[in-house]
Amino acid sequence: MTYQSINPFTNQKTKEYKSHTEQDIQQSLNQAAQILKLDWTQNVELRIDVLNQLAKNLESQKAELAKLITQDMGKLIEQSEGEIDSCIAIAEYYAKNAKEFLAPIPYKTDHGEAWVEHHPLGIIMAVEPWNFPFYQLMRVFAPNCAIGNPVLAKHAGIVPQCAEAFEKLILEADAPKGVWTNLFISSDQVADIITDKRVRGVALTGSEGAGSAVAEQAGKYLKKSTLELGGNDVFIVLDDADIERAIQLGCQARVNNSGQVCTAAKRFILHEKIADQFKIGLVAAFKQLKIGDPLDRQTTLGPLSSENALKNLVKQVDKAVQQGATLVVGGKAVEHEGYFYEPTILENITRDNEAWYEEFFGPVAQIYIAKDDDDIVEIANDSNYGLGGVIHATDIERAKKLASRVETGMIWINWITDTAPELPFGGVKNSGYGHELSIDGFKEFVQKKLVVVKKS
Q: 436 to each of 26, 191, 257, 420, how far by Cα in Å?
């Protein structure tokens, strides 16, 4: 597998890396296994110190790390800075809560005194995507660092500089070598690593196909796994919503990170009474977006992450139109040496159009019109995915009832699908299973041990 950094704005290769060998992999496994025998796993204070120092290092290096993100995968510089801020918050959150999350939990029983202890599960294999090249890694590292689990990580091939920098940050925070190991390896090598008896868990964020393959391998060898596999999130606007605010947030929710977000608003389901007003506003907002250099703070829409990402999006939109969808605005690649695609809106998508069920990873919005709340739920739930979602309404009680009916792992009312260290992140259906972040994400890779003192 090729690991190389190509600037998505200039289409220029900046750095290439050699893949790790089988010998490198075995050495990494051995180092990770040694971590489990060190005082590291018994002394939570050591692990908390690493997390706190990591947060400080991220803060002091934020400018250069954000620039690295932008040059590796094209994110707008302000959004890259925001990604580093999110990483800092996650590290601080698990440093603050590690002791509480690891504390034994007493259980009432007639048998006597009983409690459940929390111990490291073992080595974790992580497979992570390019769209949030530091944040995705931090979501895995921080809780596992707090627990004491060493992690081997395969990052995406287009962000190797970020992968290298993340490992360096952890070592600079005085973590023992082997607590986090970056590996430039192939999917086949990941499959082989999962078979190693010392590996006890697998965490993957990526495509549905990659998740299926990893879950199959993890299941075959009885390894715990968590999967986050993308989504086709709804952005529901009811007839009593603050339309101007919903338009503003809807544009933001669709084009953040150039639309390359698993929880981005992708399907705009509009109540028929406000559909025309919302569509006119969204078209105007899309037309005001400024395409350009992601390092320029005046730019509001950057490039897609790679040439392949652009080619795939072009094919998807063209196919959707061929199968009957109507182009409202946009619909083609931008003439530029970088990987730009016009902000695009599709409507009149029917269930026999493959676009109805696909995830579009780019600045492409789909509009659906519903006659009432039941119709909204029917459209929303007719999806293979269920990651995030949004409802905009003035009547909060109505929105709450609707939120309970939409089949999704997360839903936000009067905002965009967002994230915070203290809130669980995860989906249903083909969006995967398990959680990251919060105490729920922490407990995914904890070994729970019951201890009972039998009463006389």
A: 28, 22, 21, 11
Of the candidates 266, 257, 261, 220, the residue with the CA atom closest to the CA atom of residue 380: 266
Per-residue buried b or exposed e for 58-75, using 16+ beta carbons within 10 Å of the residue's own CB: beebbeebbebbbbbbbb
User: In DSSP terms, which residues pair with 386 in a beta bridge?
Assistant: 428
Q: Are 223 and 190 in contact (CB under 8 A)?
A: no
pTM for the full predicted model? 0.97
Cβ neighbours of 352 (radius 10 Å): 8
The string of DSSP letters for 30-64 reads HHHHHHTTSGGGT-HHHHHHHHHHHHHHHHHTHHH
Q: Which pLDDT belongs to residue 456?
A: 85
Give 60's contacts (C-beta < 8 A, 6+ positions apart). none
Q: Are strands 123-127 and 344-347 parallel, antiparallel or unpaired?
A: unpaired
Q: Distance (Å, rounded) from C-alpha 234 to C-alpha 81?
A: 27
Task: Give the Cα separation of 29 and 199 in Å (integer).
Answer: 8
Q: How far apart are CA 163 and CA 156, in angstroms?
A: 8
User: Any idea which residues carry the catalytic annotation?
Assistant: 228, 262
Query: Using one digit for the tens of pLDDT, what is the confidence trace for 140-187?
Result: 999 999 999 999 999 999 999 999 999 999 999 999 999 999 999 999
Closest CA to 255 of 229, 294, 228, 208: 294
Q: Specify the residue for token string 């990251």.
A: 436
